[in-house]
Here is the input.
Amino acid sequence: MLRGCQKQMIVLQTPESPLFESAFFVLRRDMGEPRQADMQAEANRLVGNETYLRKRPRFAREAALFFAGFLGGVLTCLLIYFLRMR
Here is the structure.
C-alpha cells in the first residue's frame, strides 16, 4: 500500500509482452538516488524472472477433495439404505 504522495517510481513499458502492458516499480526511500541504468537493470531483472507465471499444481488437491466428497456421499447413502432395511 502506498502511503504519502512523494514516492519515486519507475514505469517499464512492455509492448512485446502478451501478458503485461506496463509494470510499475516503487522505489525504497532508504536507497537514496539510484542511477537510471541501475533502476532499469533491476526492473528488467524482475520482469525477466518468470516465476510469477508458474501455477501451483492444484489438480491433485482438487481431485482428492472431489473423491473424498464423493466417497462420503456414497457411504452416507449406503448407511441410510442399510438402516432402512432393518
User: Anything to note?
Assistant: Helices lie at 36-48, 59-85. The chain has a mean pLDDT of 78. The first strand starts at residue 9 and ends at 13.
